[in-house]
Design a protein that fits this description.
This protein is mainly α and 215 residues long. The protein has ten helices and four strands; from the N terminus they run H-H-H-H-H-E-E-E-H-H-H-H-E-H. The strands form two sheets. The chain has a two-stranded antiparallel sheet with strand order 1-2. A two-stranded parallel sheet has the order 3-4. The radius of gyration is 21 Å and the shape is flat. The two termini are 16 Å apart.
């Protein structure tokens, strides 16, 4: 509850949930000019510069994730400080360096529930959903896009459909790859939520709609 009101969060990643319960880092906003310069560097060059400027962050983040490496390096260059020293949470827009990253905004572990279903049923629903996307014109939607940002271009299905439009894969393989990527993403989501011990899990495969609402 937030000020006596029930908050229902649907979709998105675990980061969205954590942003609501724990706040976000007080990091500087992206700088388009600097980011453009960093995008010109190879992944190895980005990693080398980050190791030089902020070895602690380099040890902790996924150094194969180019976007995360570039962002950490961007923070270093914009602030003249290592990104590792700036991982402080903001409360109502005010940085509180005394509160650790793992501490919730309210000071107490957030309570909640998350719904899921058995693996076999989940996979069937994901596969059907991807097929429905194609039936409702997702190929035409992608074909109509002229320009797209670097982050948006990484959304599940975009790269695969572009490859299909370029004649690099069949429609059947395109659908299959999107289904597989979606199943993998769902697995990561479930793993994250299962580690949130204050959230009560509700298995939709074992409970009726009425039972879920009552719980």
């Amino acid at each position: 509850h937030a000020r006596g009101k029930l908050v229902i969060v649907v979709g998105g990643s675990g980061l969205y949930i954590k942003a609501l319960t724990h706040g976000l880092d007080a990091a500087p906003p992206a700088d388009p000019e600097l980011r453009s310069e960093l995008n010109k560097l190879t992944s190895d060059q980005l990693r080398e510069r980050l190791v030089d400027l902020d070895p602690e962050t380099a040890r902790k983040i996924d150094m194969k994730n180019r976007r995360r490496v570039a962002r950490a390096l961007e923070i270093c260059l914009l602030t003249d400080k290592p990104a590792s020293t700036q991982r402080m949470q903001a409360v109502a827009g005010v940085v509180d360096p005394g509160r650790p990253r793992s501490a919730p905004l309210s000071g107490a572990a957030p309570k909640g529930v998350f719904v899921f279903c058995d693996r076999e049923e989940l996979h069937k629903r994901i596969n059907r959903r991807v097929e429905a996307m194609f039936e409702h014109g997702v190929i035409d939607e992608v074909r109509a896009i002229d320009e797209i940002g670097a982050t948006a271009s990484k959304m599940i299905g975009f790269k695969e459909i572009r490859q299909y439009l370029d004649g690099k894969m069949s429609i059947l393989l395109c659908v299959e790859k999107i289904q597989q990527a979606t199943r993998q993403y769902a697995k990561r989501q479930l793993t994250w939520f299962r580690h949130q011990t204050s959230f009560e899990p509700l298995n939709l495969s074992l409970l009726t709609h009425k039972e879920v609402v009552e719980r």
